[in-house]
Design brief:
By secondary structure, the protein is mainly alpha-helical. Helix content is 78%, strand content 0%.
């Protein structure tokens, strides 16, 4: 053993990483520290040789095939959706019935919508009458036909596979 006491392992390994320091000078003279550093070096080499194995190339294909084989039953989806709907309705109604201000606002909003719906319906009838009494109905039908045929054409183009390089 050397006349100086052995340094802490943290200090020794920190200086080993840095490549210089008094702890490394001590390890050159001390047999116990030199043996510890050699064990550390061998362990580090063994750890570097270990590697996580890569998954097989067919992993994603196999997983997706198993997912496609076992779809979620539609009944389960319907019951889950109903449970979510009923829970949210229950929470909303519970909030309304426990809060007088919210219940009053809801009643006022409902009454305002009933009052305003009469003006909305009268406006619709007035617009329909204007279209009927002028040639606007024919123009509206032609514009609607052009818009819908354009949309269906775009949908058909978007649904087709992309052209290959030879077609472009």
């Amino acid at each position: 053993m050397s006349p100086t006491p052995c340094p802490d392992l943290e200090v020794l390994f920190a200086e080993l990483e840095a490549g210089e320091g008094p702890a490394l000078d001590h390890a050159a003279e001390c047999e116990a520290c030199a043996a510890l550093m050699e064990d550390h070096r061998l362990l580090e080499n063994d750890l570097f040789r270990l590697a996580d194995p890569l998954p097989p190339p067919s992993l994603v294909v196999n997983v997706m095939a198993r997912v496609a084989e076992s779809p979620v039953p539609q009944r389960r989806e319907v019951w889950t959706g109903l449970a979510i709907l009923l829970t949210s309705l229950g929470v909303g109604l519970g909030f309304l019935f426990t809060n007088d201000r919210a219940l009053g606002r809801m009643g006022t909003a409902f009454a305002a919508s009933v009052r305003d719906s009469r003006a909305f319906v009268e406006g619709l009838f007035s617009g329909a009458h204007a279209l009927w009494s002028t040639a606007g109905l024919a123009v509206a039908c032609i514009v609607a036909f052009v818009v819908f045929t354009s949309l269906f054409g775009l949908k058909r183009l978007a649904g087709s596979p992309p052209p290959s390089l030879s077609e472009a």
